Amino acid sequence: MRPETQNGKPDSAADAEILALMAMGWTLSDGRRADRLLALTGLDADALRAGVGNRAILSAVLAFLADHEPDLVACAEAIESSPAALIAAKENLSR
């Protein structure tokens, strides 16, 4: 199980970052989805590389997933998390 408390949400800011990094990896593992991420967020490959430790970039990746429920659900399943945990991580990183 991925970093979450029993309520299915990230336990800390570090857990939120871990979930976001896992979600970023999942998102970028598919070329079409990665292209859509770049197009919709305005980010580029260099910004993603540089933003691996940047809460705003990680939050943007989670917001991208949150805006397309099928991807949100598929990502949560793939990284053994939950959609609620990914949304909570996005909110945590947005603060």
What does this structure look like?
By secondary structure, the chain is mainly alpha-helical. The protein contains six helices and no strands. The chain has helices at residues 13-28, 31-41, 45-50, 55-66, 69-78, 83-94. Helix 1 (13-28) crosses helix 6 and helix 4 (55-66) packs antiparallel against helix 6. It starts with 12 loop residues before the first helix and ends with a helix.
Quick overview:
With 95 residues, the chain is mainly α.
Could you name the key traits of this structure?
mainly alpha, single chain
Assign the structural class, choosing from mainly alpha, mainly beta, alpha/beta, alpha+beta, or little secondary structure.
mainly alpha
Radius of gyration: 12 Å
| Oligomeric state as shown | single chain
Give the low-confidence spans: none
Distance between the termini: 25 Å
Total strands: the figure is 0
Roughly how much helix do the residues carry, as a percent range? Answer: over 70%
The averaged pLDDT comes out at 90
β-strand percent reads: under 5%
Largest sheet: none
The ordered H/E elements are HHHHHH
- Give the count of helical stretches: 6
Overall spatial form: globular
